[in-house]
Amino acid sequence: MPIATRITLAVCLLTAAAAARAQNAGPAAAAKAWLSAALEDPKKQDAVLTALRVSGDRDAAPIFAALTRSGDKRHRLAATAALARLAPEQAPPVLLERLRQDSLHTIRAEALAQLLELKAISVEQLQEAVQIDDDNIRCLAARGLVRLGQKPQAGAVLRKLVESKDLATACLARATLVGLGEVDHLAPLGAAMHDASTADSIVALVLQQAGDEKALPVRELAGEIAGSARPVAVRVMAFKTLAALAPDGPALLAKAILEQKQIILRVHLMNLLSSADNNRQALTSLADDDGTVGMLAKLELGRAAQDAQAGQAAGQALRLGHPVVVDYVLDRIGKDVGAHGAKTDYYTAPLLAFIRSLDSDSREMSVAHIRAARAATLLCDLGTPAAMAGIKELATGRHGTLTQAVAGGMRWSKNRSVCDIARLMLDNPYHAVAVDAAMTLGMFGDPQARDPLARLLARHDREQTTLVTLAAWYLLKIEGQSLLAAQDLAKQIK
Fold first, then answer.
1. Is this structure's pTM higher than 0.85?
2. Long-range contacts, 13-17 (Cβ 8 Å, 24+)
3. Predicted local distance difference test score (pLDDT) of residue 203
4. Which contiguous run of DSSP H or E holds residue 478?
5. Does the pLDDT value for residue 364 go beyond 80?
6. Distance CA 181, CA 188 (A)
7. Beta carbons of 18 and 37 less than 8 angstroms apart
8. Which residues contact 413 (CB under 8 A, 6 or more apart)?
């Protein structure tokens, strides 16, 4: 037997043995032992860390703080980004340490980007960062200095960076200088932006920078890119920049929406318009359109008034079934439910109708069923009697993949009352549905999930590592030991 095979077999046997021993000591001990062994297993590490990151549980923060010092550069990079989201108030000291001490410039740049996003870095710390021997970091730090009002110092750094060998850095430096009034950088910036070899990501980044900093001289350049053959994402950013620089951004966007032929582009532009200030007049002008644009405009007007028009328009748009339109509507419903809760019960009927319109006899999950799961999450968060009755009927009935989709959607709800439905699903003959029910209960720390999650942990050799990781983590949550376990697990990370 090859030595590599013997080593892999040994690791697997040790993992199984540790879990078996801990199982005899109780579910929490078994969970901690499994997580400890999995973190030591190179084949499982990535899945474990992904699961903990996706859980969004701040109790896992000590693990990611330790990972920022890991010898594995991939884990350091991922942890540097994840920590700021899991525990933003705890992240700054750790991020500052990475910025100052990490051996890789990519990780130092990520740490700086996160500090800027959190607004947790001082002028003095940025002045320190512009001395780092990396053009990307220096440009990022200089742009941070601009935001904090240190324009002369930032300008001196940026003028050197326009000659950077890194095209993205050079373009961002020029765009920032143009925003500071140094228009002599506009022509070379335009040449780079029009060059077909310039990556779309660079063009979009420069446009975003120009819009954020109100770089008026870039307006003509943004207009040219908006009408170009660049991908939709780049053109959307160009229109966003144009709107930011225009005297009447909403009117500009409304005109563009009516002129464009691509439904994807029109929906993305509607997204920009819906987020703009003083957009009522522009939306009203679009509401007369007898197509998709009119539906979405009525949805936005209804949302602003918090009335039934929003529900009617949402239902019409969802019935179209176009993926981009569906995603737009579900996103808007999510914002309203999050902000106003049960007051938006006019969304209950269209969401239930959307889920029920999908093929319930299909044996395989599709992208459409993933969207059904999202709609189910929104219904659970909405929490009206009609919404919960609909969820219960779909989750406990025989609806093929719809039941699975709804069960999956329940896992992401913030409404604890879903536990009442999840308990009814623990004995569902479909393994995936029963697992989702246990996961839902586990997420809320419901004691009734203890035994199903323990059984799932015991089946670790037959289940996905991501799933078993969450089962182990939720067992620790139920036992009130997740934070303590995370602190202990952090100590073993090298």
1. yes
2. 15/41, 16/460, 16/461
3. 95
4. helix 465-478
5. no
6. 15
7. yes
8. 377, 380, 381, 440
Band of pLDDT at residue 363, cut at 50, 70 and 90: low
- pLDDT greater than 70 at residue 270: yes
- Residue 76 placed within a domain: yes
Residue pair 236/227 in contact (Cβ under 8 Å)? The answer is no
Domain count for the chain, please give it. Answer: 1
Query: Domain containing 93: what range?
Result: 1-121+459-494
Whether residue 33 is predicted with pLDDT greater than 50 in this model: the reply is yes
Structure confidence at residue 224 (pLDDT)? 95
Within a 10 A sphere around the Cβ of 447, how many other Cβ atoms?
9
Exposed, middle or buried by CB within 10 Å (0-12, 13-18, 19+), for 357? Answer: middle
> Residue 418: phi, psi to the nearest 5?
-65, -20
Q: How confident is the model at residue 400 (pLDDT cuts 50, 70, 90)?
A: confident
Of 411, 366, 364, 418, residue with least CA distance to 391: 418
| Pair 350, 315: CB distance under 8 Å | yes
Q: Is the predicted pLDDT of residue 112 greater than 70, yes or no?
A: yes
Return the half-sphere exposure (C-beta side, CA atoms, 13 A cut-off) of residue 465.
Answer: 18
Burial annotation 96-134 (CB, 10 A radius, 16+ → b, else e): bebbeebeeeebbbbbbbbbbeeebbeeebbeebbebeb
Residue 49 covered by a domain: yes
| Rounded CA separation 335/314 (Å) | 13
Spatial contact of 309 and 317, defined as CB atoms under 8 Å apart: no
What pLDDT sits at residue 460? 87
Q: End-to-end distance of the chain based on CA atoms, in angstroms?
A: 30
Count other C-beta atoms under 10 Å from residue 432's C-beta: 15
Distance (Å) of CA 383 to CA 336, 389, 445: 13, 9, 19
Amino acid letter for position 353: A
Average pLDDT over residues 43-66: 93
d(CA 309, CA 49): 43
pLDDT tens readout for residues 188-227: 999 999 999 999 999 999 999 888 888 889 999 999 999 9
| Residue 316 included in any domain | no
Strand blocks (E) in 30-184: none
Residue 494 within any structural domain of the chain: yes
